[in-house]
Please model this.
Amino acid sequence: MTVVAILLLAAGTFAFRYGGTALRERIDLPEHVRELLSTAALVLLVALASTAALAKGQSFAGWALPAGVVVGGVLAWRKVPFLVAVVAGTGTAALLRVVGVS
Model:
């Protein structure tokens, strides 16, 4: 039963993704709908990132992890190379944990 559910979800995901590519030229969305979809994608990404940064299981992750995410995010926003932003964010979280901030 689990394999059937996995196959159905895989087929649905493939159809959904293929449908977007196949219908791109056939459907013309108004500009305000495109802006709304762009904003919705950004909100979803921020919600996912904040949940991952603030929660560890069912509890609060502590202050070191969100601080590292903020440092990495600010550096990425300032157009610092990706590797530098990741290393700085990770280093910030590690340093705070070594100091005793959990």
Q: What stands out?
A: The mean pLDDT is 91.
